Amino acid sequence: MDTVRIRLRKPNRVVRFLCSNVTIERGERCVARSERGLEYGVCVAPPQHCPDEIARQINAKVIRKATEEDETAFQRLVEEEAGAQQVCLEMIRERDLPMKVVETEFTFDRKRVCFYFTADQRVDFRQLVRDLAHRLHMRIELRHIQVRDQAKMVGGIGECGRVLCCQGWLRDFM
User: Which of 58, 59, 60, 134 reaches 20 to 30 Å from 34, CA-CA?
Assistant: First the structure.
C-alpha cells in the first residue's frame, strides 16, 4: 500500500494519507478524506510504500486529484471562511468574551468549521458554539492555541530580520 504526505491548509500541518487508487506527485493539489471530513491540500512527498500493518492504522485516504471545479470551490471556501470569521467576531463582541479569533478553517465539504483563538484565561464559550452552529448550520469547533501557534499561523519577521522560526522550519512546539 502506498502513502503520500499532504500539507493541509491550516494550521499548515503535514499528514500521511493512503493513496491506493490515485497516482499523485509532489506539488499536485488533491482532495482527501480524513477523520474530520474532506480536506484540500498539496502533496509534499512522492508516494512511498508502506507496510500493511502500518497502513491499517492510517484512516485517511486521497480521494482524487483536484479538478478545476475543486479549485473554484476552494476559492469560494476561502471567501466563506472570511464571512464566518466576521460572524464569530460579532458574536464574541456581543457576549464580551475575552478571546481573539486568529484563523478560521472550513473542511472542504463544508460540514465543519474550526475557529482558532487565543485567550489569556479560560473562556466559557458553550453558548457561543450553540449560537454559531445555529447561524452557520455546521459543526463548530473552537480550538484554543498558544501565542507561538498564533505567530506560526499569522506569520511575521523575527528580531533577526528573518521569517519567524515557528513559521519557517519549526513544526512542533514543546
Answer: 134
Structure-model confidence comparison of residues 154 and 173, the more confident one: 154
Task: Encode 78-93: b = buried (16+ Cβ within 10 Å), e = exposed.
Answer: eeebeebbeebeebbe
Nine-digit cell string for 123: 473562556
* DSSP letters spanning 109-167: TSSEEEEEEE-SS----HHHHHHHHHHH-SEEEEEE--HHHHHHHH--B-TTSSB-HHH
Q: Which three cell numbers stand for residue 35?
A: 477523520
Helix (H, G, I), strand (E, B) or coil at 42: strand
**Residues ≥6 apart with Cβ < 8 Å to 31:** 38, 39, 40, 62, 63, 64, 65, 66, 70, 108
CATH architecture of 72-154: 2-Layer Sandwich (3.30)
Q: Where in the chain is the domain with CATH 3.30.300?
A: 72-154
pTM of the model: 0.81
